[in-house]
Amino acid sequence: MKLTITRNGSQMTGSLCGKLDTVNAEQFSRDMQPLMDAADGDIVLDCTALDYISSSGLRLFLTLRKQVAAKGGKLTIRNLNEGIREVFAITGFFNLFTIE
Amino acid sequence: MKHFTYQGKAKLILPAERAALEGLRDWVEEIADSLATPLRAKHQILIAVDEIFTNIASYSYAGKPGFAGVSVDFDEEARELILTFEDEGVAYNPLEAREPDIEAALEDREIGGLGILMVRQLMDSVEYKREENRNILILKKRTV
Predict the structure, then answer these.
(1) CA-CA-CA-CA torsion for B57, B109, B92, B46, nearest 10 degrees?
(2) Which domain, by its residues, includes B102?
(3) How far apart are CA B84 and CA B34, in angstroms?
(4) Within a domain: residue B5?
């Protein structure tokens, strides 16, 4: 699991690569701290290279989503593969996130 | 590439600890690859392994050391992968767990229960048995 954070003007993009499961969740939780710190701004999670996500990963997406809501920022999730879309549908995550 | 003909049952005995999950995940992934499992089905299987083993590691032995057995069987005719998880921890049937409210608003959303919900939806069947002092959970998933 790799998270690459890039800044483009006022927008921060986190690009995820690999498996976001319980094995990697703790590391990802630390790696996404800059996004948590920027939760009052415009954040994009680019999931083009994300293979799959388990509930440990969903928990962290939800943590970031709640932080953004609390700080008045904006969070957009982009490029989910079919498998992750299915997981979002099962768990009702489509209702919680802006998905592009 | 012709897939490797997987025969018989493979079983691992692991400490019921989160640290054992990575090795288990990689082992199941190798078996799934050897069966030429399509990527999406493989990912669904790996999610299920993560959720079930993490549950066992977190709750089954209530913080005390214990073991979990995981076996993988393949029904060639049905092209079905059969994963069996066993532990000797407290009796727990995840199929009886309260389902989370997936319609709840953001501020009320909790993550608990989503894992087992995903397992139920992503696998073709999930069966629980309590035999003597063991929890036995059998997951089946067609690899097509």
Answers:
(1) -50
(2) 10-142
(3) 19
(4) no
CB of B50 closer than 8 Å to CB of B100 = no
Query: Each residue of B39-62: pLDDT tens digit?
Result: 999 999 999 999 999 999 999 999
Give me A97's structure tokens.
């996130």
- In whole angstroms, what is the distance from residue B4 CA to residue B31 CA? 9
Q: Is residue B3 part of a domain?
A: no
Closest by CA position to B7, among listed B76, B99, B107: B76
Cβ distance A52 to B46 less than 8 Å, yes or no, reads yes
Residue of B33, B94, B83, B114 lying closest to A22 (CA atoms): B114
Interface of A with B in 50-69 (CB under 8 A): 51-56, 58-59, 62, 65-66, 69
Q: Which amino acid is at B121?
A: Q
Q: CATH for A2-99?
A: 3.30.750.24
User: Could you tell me which chain B residue has the CA closest to the CA of A21?
Assistant: B50
The answer, yes or no, to whether residue B2 has pLDDT greater than 60, is no
